[in-house]
Amino acid sequence: MRAGVLGANDGVVSTAGLVVGVAGAAGSSSELLTAGLAGLLAGSMSMAAGEYVSVSTQRDSERAALDQERRELDRTPAAELEELTGLYVAKGLSEELARQVAVELTAHDALAAHAETELGIDPNELTNPWHAAWASFIAFTVGALLPLLAIVLPPASVRVPVTVAAVIAALVVCGWISATLGGARIAPAVVRNVAGGALAMAITYVAGLLLNAST
């Protein structure tokens, strides 16, 4: 979900900035379509590759931590039991109850007990880089299609205002979803999201106008 929301948001903002900048330079509909599609493809592939590399690194780190925990359990099981007991005491359990819990969980699945309590990792639910990559690719593509269609389909006289309105609406939705998923306040997230997207479009549009004037 995180990768999907971020991918959609990036697709909206980056593609909107690109096509609005081209529109500011008096680009034709075919030029806008070409630029938008190029940005969509480049951005979606970049997002997918970035997420794959990032999550693969996280997965490698999780596997390395689990391998280290396995070795420690094999070499010093008593010390690991004491460590697990101490972690449960730190969470608020009494010494006696903490030891009982540690002993029973160790007997059931020692690696899972240590991984979840000590490392915050579920050995059976490691992060999947392919899931993140595909989520980013699809979400970026969907997000990028909105400003692309908004700039290409309307008449030239209204294509920039239509695109700006569509993008702001999309950014409101993305900001609301991201805040809801993260349990954060909705209003600040939406304001930041809209302000960032509007600033990006304004800068690229002015750059396009200046480029058109200079040529």
How would you concisely characterize the structure shown here?
The protein is mainly alpha-helical and 215 residues long. Helix content is 87%, strand content 0%. The radius of gyration is 25 Å and the shape is elongated.
Index terms:
0% strand, mainly alpha, 2 domains, 215 residues
Q: Tell me the number of strands.
A: 0
Number of helices: 7
Structural class: mainly alpha
**Shape summary:** elongated
Q: The biggest beta sheet, please?
A: none
**Termini separation (Å)?**
44 Å
Account of the 3D structure:
The structure is a single chain. This protein is mainly alpha-helical. The chain has 2 domains: 2-58 and 128-214, no CATH class; 61-119, no CATH class. The chain is built from 7 helices and no strands. The protein has helices spanning 2-24, 29-75, 77-90, 95-119, 129-152, 159-182, 186-214. The radius of gyration is 25 Å and the shape is elongated.
Give a topology summary.
Blueprint: H1 2-24, H2 29-75, H3 77-90, H4 95-119, H5 129-152, H6 159-182, H7 186-214
Helix pairs in contact: 1-2, 1-5, 1-6, 1-7, 2-3, 2-4, 2-5, 3-4, 5-6, 6-7
